[in-house]
TrEMBL record:
This is PPC domain-containing protein. InterPro entries: PPC_dom. SUPFAM superfamilies: AF0104/ALDC/Ptd012-like (SSF117856). It holds the Pfam family PCC. Residues 1-20 are annotated as: Disordered. Residues 25-171, 177-299 form the PPC domain.
Amino acid sequence: MTARRAGVPLHHPGPRPAERIVSVPTPVTVVRAELPPGAVVADALWELTRSAGCRGASAELAHGCFGTLRYVHPAIATDGTRIASFSDTVEPTAPGFVVGGSATVGTREGRGFAHVHAAWLDGDGALRGGHLLPGTTVGDVAIQVTLRALPGAALVSETDPETTLPAFTPHRVAGEHGPARAVVSRVRPGVDLHEAVVEAARRGGFSSAVVRASLGSAVGARLRTGPGRITEADWPATEFTALTGTVEGADGDRPRVTLAGSLVDLTGRVHAGVLLAGQNPVAVTFELFVEEAGEHATR
């Protein structure tokens, strides 16, 4: 039986694949744009990706506001088929002023699709966050996007037999695309986020790398949120709206990793802090983007 506390890996109902991190090294094309008022967020992100000639991208959202906003946050499953699930749909009164967000863009069932997590301020000034549902639109203020299109990787969302929930998986795109400057990965349940970052950097051949535009879930969360202060979000899952950080010395025996994130708990509250190493295993899936640092970094 799974221990019901943050930081302890979950045991899901389906078959457990031996490969726990699926990675594809790829070049990167940086696209900076604004999602215009009235646009459907997911559709606009896919159009930017498609226009760059790619079938996968990792993106960061900033500023602007949402118009129609429908979202869910993590919940404990009650149907007996899985451990973690989603809350009922929440549809607050607009606007939602964007604090930040992350998105993975690719295809599902052959059509453009985006997995988007974000944090925002509602009309009362309360900080909210969650997993955006299809149909969420841009409000009166355009949303700024930095999108990293991935010529060497196709990102495909399918239902995962292990967790019975949807997950994006990267697949190599045939052909010559140039030197790899990033690694896009699907991290499966139970893998610690610090370990996943180091492994992704090594697969790209990067000694130093940065983490950005990454999202997914962890088993609760354990964060440093001030001098001598540890914050623990509730079991069984929290959803990261952003994960950023650095890794140095990934090609050596003692890599140094620093990760910071913002995340949403079971009640819809948003937390932020520095992740404690070895104490944040993936709950359901994590879409990790690791980019080479230094002179070869993309801008």
